[in-house]
Amino acid sequence: MHVIDPKHMPVASSEVARDINRRIVLNLIRTRQPISRADLARVCGLQRSTISLIVEDLIAQDWVVEGPTGRLPRGRRPTFLRLNDDRVIIGIDLRPTQTTVALSDVNGNFTTREVMQTPGQPKLALEALIECVQRIVAGCEGKKIEGIGVSLPGRYNLESNRLVFAPNLKWTDFDLRTPLEKATGLDVDLENAANACVLAAVWFDRMDSYRNLVVVTVSEGIGTGIFVNGQIARGVNGMAGEFGHVPLDSNGPPCGCGGHGCWEVFASNRAALRYYTESSDVQPGLTFPDLLSRADQGDMRAQKALEKMAHFLGRGMRMIVAGLAPERIVIIGDLTRSWHLFGPVIDAEVQAQVLPGGCRPQLIPKHEDGMARLRGTVALVLQEHFGIPRQAHA
User: Model confidence over 140-152: pLDDT tens digits?
Assistant: First the structure.
């Protein structure tokens, strides 16, 4: 039963109806381009006259452009429509060690990328970001910049716009959005990295047909993005999904959050490196990709370290399976590069937790060299125009 709260239920005005129809047409063009006006009318059921008015409005706003004409046995030749590649978005993937700033078109195709080391001080990082964004903006002559999307390795408060929990980044109570907007004159949207990956999966990987899925990002720590009943679950202060900081062993190693034995201290990239260095003498500066390469080359100690990480990764996912019962769990991170070695280990741990009557979730490894977060920042900005309008939410 869905309880209607009159205080939060908007009146279905003609403006709301027009906005919803516009978004439906815009999404159909996005997912089926190139597509004609006649095909749009057939797919969505709106009258052709209504479609024509909406399309002309979208063309006037530079969201849509007309492409080539088609051929029919008889009658008027249709003109195909597609999204305008000159509408662009700036995406920022902020991580504890490095930050990527990139320019993308509305279809998620990146044309420019700059990578820099992430300064330890937030004010220095902000200055470097502003300089990089301004440099990209200067090269966007003739293009319409829709906004800036930022993927964060932590959680932020939607109301205060302040970063409130980022143990691996070690920034606390910092407002990134306001000074970035003032310096660039562009709208800025912030999102947790795992949630950004959920948006990327739904918008660009065509997983929108799945109403319940979870994305697990594995890097310096472990992040979890939850997609429930077709919506991202954010919880109070945006803190929903911090499974990485649920203790598996209260007597375990210390975690950056201040606790001990959290899931991520056993199953993150850092954990695998710790397992390896504990079992052998290694040179300083060993990276997780180095460890994967050693495992691929037959280094048994590297394989055992990664296998131990995989066991803990699957064991932690049991919490997700039992608590959320998702249809799919999408795993994003460098470990997926060697999925043939460690995927079966993770899957066996996960399937062991499926309760009677429950569904066996499908594990989907995604190795995109960090692009999932960036593509998520693009979707973050675009959902303001393509997603459900704010006033239509119950």
Answer: 988 999 999 999 9
For residue 68, the tally of other CB atoms under 10 A from its CB is 11
Counting DSSP H helices and E strands in the chain, the numbers are: 12, 16
Interval 156-187: pLDDT, tens: 887 777 888 888 888 878 888 999 999 999 99
Give the pLDDT confidence score for residue 335 in this predicted structure: 92
Does the residue 128 lie in any domain? yes
Strand partners, 331: 216, 365
- In a domain? residue 8: no
Asked if the structure places residue 1 within a domain, the reply is no
- Taking the whole predicted model, whether its pTM rises above 0.70 is answered as yes
**Highest mean pLDDT (candidates 65-79, 155-169, 183-197, 358-372):** 183-197
Counting every residue, how long is the chain? 394
Residues 59 and 111 in one domain: no
DSSP for 64-104, written as a single string: EEEEEE---SSSPPPEEEEE-TTEEEEEEEE-SSEEEEEEE
How far is Cα of residue 357 from the mean position of the Cα atoms in its chain?
A: 30
How far apart (Å, rounded) are the C-alpha atoms in residues 113 and 91?
9
Whether residue 226 is found in the same domain as residue 162? no
Q: DSSP per residue over 230-269, as a string?
A: TEE---GGG-TT-GGGSBS-TTS-B-TTS-BSBHHHHHSH
